[in-house]
Design brief:
single chain, alpha+beta, two-stranded antiparallel ribbon, 2 helices, about 25% helix, flat
Length: about 70
């Protein structure tokens, strides 16, 4: 059997960016993010309200707001 044919497997600690619930995954990637998990996703919870915008969307909206204030 050939050695080193499979990628290295890591145990990764990740937290949901919406509800901050921690998770432990095994992955070939060392880092990744989870925007919505089963604990806060509307399909799983039955709550049909929108999840709060965090992460990239929130950063974009802040930059857009700063740019509009500079142009005034």
């Amino acid at each position: 059997m050939k050695k080193n044919t499979h990628p290295e497997y890591f145990e990764v600690q990740v937290s949901c960016s919406t509800c901050q619930k921690p998770f432990t995954f095994k992955s070939v990637k060392k880092q990744f993010s989870v925007d919505v998990c089963s604990g806060c996703h509307p399909v799983y919870t039955g709550n049909r309200s929108q999840a709060k915008a965090t992460g990239r969307i929130d950063k974009f909206n802040k930059r857009l707001e700063k740019m509009s204030q500079k142009n005034k």
